[in-house]
Amino acid sequence: MDFKHKLINWYSTNKRPLPWRETNNPYHIWLSEIILQQTQVKQGLPYYEAFINKYPTIYDLAKASETAVLKLWQGLGYYSRARNLHTTAKHIVNNLEGEFPDNYKDLLQLKGVGDYTASAIASFAFNEVAAVVDGNVYRVLSRYFGIETAINSTKGIKEFKTLATTLIDKENPATYNQAIMEFGALQCKPKNPNCSTCPLQISCVAFQKKKVDALPVKQKKTKITTKYFNFLVYIDNNHNTLFEKRDTKGIWQNLYQFPLIESNKSLNSEEFHLMDLDNSFLKVNSVDYSLYNETDIVHKLSHQHLYTKFWVIMVEELPIDAIPIESLIKYPTPVLISDFIEVFKF
């Protein structure tokens, strides 16, 4: 039995029952693939179900506001995925008469859809012979064939895509693609893979050469930058606060937050007092403030570590654009902000 048939045979008895595997509806498949980018199945599944329940068709998603989509996405991170999801839904409804492109080449033109996602939708929804290459596939192929080319290098991306294309089962591309990804997720795991029960063990180069832990190879990550955030939590006598939308481009674009001051280090109360609050979104003659957290809350993103403090500022009255504190939960926010709102006793 060759490589692809061993994988498909393993998949037939080990696959997880997931809702997007029970359909060839391209909307459902596209939605699941966007959610599962940078996200594990156990975390993504509740979001998938929530989106399907609230937006059962692409027309429903296209009619939604971006704020509503971001709110439903809240907690998944990588919010550009949600913005692209909404943009693409409107494009398909408004420009493609609600019909998904039915082939890899055209799917690749959709915003937020790259090589892997286009291949997945093309094969799962339309049974096109398009090989998927995600993190799981990189790991399986690298270990099985003993490939030491970095998977995140230009050469590696091309090499693994070419290899995956030669291996795919042309008679049953959808099942094969699901099989190799599931195999990487459950059997050939990043840490502590189940080599003792692996059906590919005998011919696996990494196992034979004791290189399982060394493969796949990755180039060094981008340098992580450190930022210091000071969120200003204003509260007035009418139980209002200030909340603003992040219009600038970035990971939190179009999400909401308390007014923010960035500093070049973590500030203590004395240093904060010396700052010019007139430059921080609100001009007041006198304020009563307190530091909510003496120790920075560290929020780690892929390329940034945010050291954050929340300053609670009591004032008599806020400007007309202030909002009731009770309405904070209606707004889409970064997890850092939503966690604070949940635990802080306003």
Describe this structure in words.
This protein folds into two domains: 3-214, Endonuclease III, domain 1 (Orthogonal Bundle), CATH 1.10.340; 225-343, Nucleoside Triphosphate Pyrophosphohydrolase, CATH 3.90.79. A hairpin with a 3-residue loop joins β7 and β8 (304-314). It starts with a helix and ends with a helix. Strands 1, 5, 6, 7 and 8 form a five-stranded mixed sheet that branches. A two-stranded antiparallel ribbon has the order 2-9. It has 14 helices and nine strands. With 346 residues, it is an alpha+beta fold. This is Adenine DNA glycosylase. Belongs to the Nth/MutY family. It catalyses: Hydrolyzes free adenine bases from 7,8-dihydro-8-oxoguanine:adenine mismatched double-stranded DNA, leaving an apurinic site. It is an enzyme of class 3 (hydrolase).
> How many strand units?
9
Structural class: alpha+beta
Mean pLDDT: 93
What's the CATH topology name of the largest domain? Answer: Endonuclease III, domain 1
How many domain modules? 2
Q: State Rg.
A: 24 Å
Morphology: globular
Number of helices: 14
CATH homologous superfamily heading of the largest domain: Hypothetical protein, domain 2
- Unreliable segments of 5+ consecutive residues: 281-285
What can be said about the biggest beta sheet?
A: 5 strands, mixed
Helical content (DSSP H or I, runs of 4+): 40-55%
CATH class of the largest domain: Mainly Alpha
Element string (H = helix, E = strand): HHHHHHHHHHHHEEEEEHEEEEH
Which second-level CATH architecture of the largest domain applies?
Orthogonal Bundle
Distance between the termini: 64 Å
Beta-strand level of the residues, as a percent range?
5-15%
